[in-house]
Design a protein that fits this description.
heterodimer, A: 332 residues, alpha/beta, Rossmann fold, four-stranded antiparallel β-sheet, 13 helices, 34% helix, B: mainly alpha
């Protein structure tokens, strides 16, 4: 059975009194031990999707569709079940450890809190946490427990957050841009540790990022989100060889190539739509170099293609035409 | 940490010194000659001169200030011109009432304000009611509250005495309840609004989101993360509340006929009893400065980031 199954998830948030759709249609599953990268631009709804999984949406949010953890509906959980789910089954690593760890309590308080909350003995919890800190590459773990967040660097603090997530021995790890707020030099260290510890423990992971290449490097599958729609879901290894969706191709092309730098960065023409701005047709159609009339009128369904799924009317026709170069005819 | 504490202590002493010069000097600017007052109004120049000599009134300002300061540091607050008694003796019987009243009011303010504010921030419906209540409460001056409370609870209902301060602890509690409430009303409203804002702000913080995502119970999230962090701004501002309490105390003691420092200050001022006014003023200012120093220390305890000297 899949660890996580998301079916036609849609989320609406109250903005100035009216409900605004921030997530349209996301269908996604994660198997045991599998890592899925959820990729998209800011505003595509990737953080919303990951927060919906743990029911961490802002007050007043309306959720449609279905989210299942090991077959149990997360949306239907009562308070006790939700607490059990959060304390035992799932853990989240947030983007900015400086903001996401209480600044006035010690690292020890932070690490132990979740374990004590579910009734573990303090001594056992402490020993477990010290071992974990060492495992994520934090030196002098015993001293760290007495320190405060402001005494640690961002990279170190993110390792603490990872240790805190691993401490509850979850089955599912949600990582929301875990390296985005860190220095470039520490980003890869933290990513390597997260990846290694996850594999070692066979955790399923939903890895939210705007960095397609990074996601492809650490994940088994990549799911691409655009303006609140899941537009493509493919094995990570397939992504470069077999492009299916014009948006994914554009994303890949617009990443600066460190080996053969181009004089000018490629960019997808137009501005990324927010989820609530989407019209009747394909959300990407206004910016797509391959859009035909049908794309503007009819919304493409997510359908199986090769080893993955894609939501594009012209996916079969375009096979082989999409290249890693900037979208043809898409200049300004 | 000790460095930070040392710095605060030094600035506290300097503040007190500057304040003492101000207090001692202010009375020199006041109209009227103390010698005339002591002589009873009709005195020959020779008598006035004699008085000025015995009371050291003709010496330079800083000499007299120094003598006074040394006396104060030795616990001698001077001699009351009016009562012909040491000021310390006069104060001894009155300090207790004022301390009791101010502590009583402070307890009401902190307990009431924090509870109301927390409730207002956490419960939408209670919040609306509390916001209206505190907005009204904020606008009630203590002398108006005093008159209203006396009218309702002392005169009409007869539950509390109209004036006086009581003798033993229980009767003190009974006598000082209405004065403490009168003194506390607007400050409780203020503290409640402040607490509400601070709690609301903390509720929206990312670290609170983390705590919720980890399945920490709502009670623990509120106590350990929301209220715990909101205590920092609440503590900072409650130091200022003390200044308001001291000013309000003078009014309330007059209104309820309480024999405390506040009413003594008013009487002494009316009678131009210089030494008494100086002594009470100094005590009030020192209390304010010291309480704020303690609040600063307490902030250091609450916020580890301040301990690093990054205040």
């Amino acid at each position: 059975m899949n660890v996580l199954e998301i079916n036609h998830l849609a989320v609406e948030l109250p903005v100035e009194g009216a409900l605004r759709r921030v997530l349209h249609d996301v269908t996604l599953s994660i198997g045991p031990g599998e890592a899925v990268g959820l990729v998209g631009e800011s505003g595509a709804g990737k953080s919303m999707a990951s927060r919906a999984v743990i029911r961490l949406l802002p007050a007043g949010a309306v959720v449609h569709g279905d989210i299942r953890y090991s077959g149990d509906s997360v949306l239907a959980m009562d308070r006790a079940a939700l607490r059990h789910f959060r304390t035992h089954d799932v853990a989240m690593v947030f983007q900015d450890p400086r903001a996401h760890i209480n600044p006035v309590r010690t690292i020890g308080d932070f690490l132990l809190e979740a374990l004590l909350e579910r009734g573990e003995r303090r001594d056992d919890a402490r020993a477990a946490v010290i071992a974990l800190l060492a495992a994520v590459g934090v030196s002098e773990p015993e001293r760290r427990l007495r320190q405060f967040p402001h005494e640690l660097s961002g990279g170190l603090l993110q390792r603490v957050m990872i240790a805190a997530a691993l401490a509850v021995s979850p089955t599912l790890l949600l990582a929301d841009e875990p390296t985005t707020a860190l220095d470039v030099t520490t980003q890869s260290d933290v990513m390597v540790i997260l990846d290694a510890r996850r594999r070692e423990r066979g955790l399923a992971m939903l890895f939210v990022t705007h960095d397609l290449e990074l996601a492809a490097a650490v994940c088994d599958r990549i799911a691409v989100l655009y303006a609140g729609f899941l537009v493509e879901d493919a094995p990570a290894g397939d992504l470069h060889r077999n492009l299916r969706h014009p948006y994914t191709a554009g994303l890949l092309a617009s990443r600066p190539d460190p080996v053969a730098p181009r004089p000018r960065l490629a960019a997808i023409p137009g501005r990324p739509l927010s989820a609530f701005e989407v019209g009747a047709g394909c959300a990407f159609a206004p910016r797509c170099a391959f859009a035909v009339e049908r794309c503007h009128l009819e919304r493409p369904e997510l359908r199986a293609l090769d080893a993955g799924r894609v939501a594009c009317h012209r996916a079969e026709e375009l096979a082989g035409q999409l290249a890693l170069s900037p979208t043809p005819g898409g200049g300004e | 940490m000790w460095k930070v504490i040392g710095e605060r202590a030094v600035s506290l002493v300097v503040t007190l010194l500057v304040a003492s010069v101000g207090i001692y000097g202010a009375l020199f600017l006041a109209p009227g000659n103390p010698a005339t007052l002591l002589a009873g109004g009709h005195a020959t120049p020779a008598v006035l001169a004699a008085i000025e000599r015995t009371e050291h009134l003709n010496e330079p300002f800083f000499t007299r200030y120094w003598d006074w300061l040394v006396g104060v540091l030795h616990g001698n607050l001077g001699q009351s011109f009016v009562y012909r008694e040491p000021v310390t003796t006069l104060l001894a019987g009155r300090v207790g009432n004022t301390v009791f009243l101010v502590l009583y009011a402070a307890t009401l303010i902190i307990a009431g304000g924090v509870v109301l504010g927390l409730l207002a921030a956490l419960d939408r419906r209670a919040g609306a009611a509390i916001t209206v209540l505190t907005s009204v409460g904020l606008g009630i001056p203590s002398f108006v509250a005093a008159i209203a409370l006396i009218t309702v609870f002392s005169v009409k209902l007869g539950w509390f005495p109209v004036f006086g301060s009581g003798t033993d602890l229980l009767s003190q509690l009974w006598h000082l309840t209405l004065p403490a409430v009168a003194l506390a009303i607007s400050w409780t409203a203020y503290t409640a609004q402040l607490t509400k804002a601070a709690v609301r702000e903390e509720l929206g913080r990312e670290h609170v989101e983390t705590a919720r995502s980890r399945g920490i119970s709502r009670r623990h999230v509120i106590l350990r993360h929301v209220l715990r962090n909101a205590m920092i701004p609440i503590t900072t501002v409650s130091g200022l509340t003390v200044a308001g309490l001291i000013a309000g105390d003078v009014v309330v003691e007059q209104a309820f006929g309480i024999n405390g420092l506040g009413s003594f200050l008013v009487q002494s001022t009316l009678q131009k009893d210089f030494a008494s006014v100086q002594a009470v003023s100094l005590i009030l200012v020192a209390t304010f400065v010291i309480v704020n120093g303690l609040v600063d220390l307490w902030s250091l305890v609450l916020d580890p980031r301040l301990r690093a000297g990054r205040a």
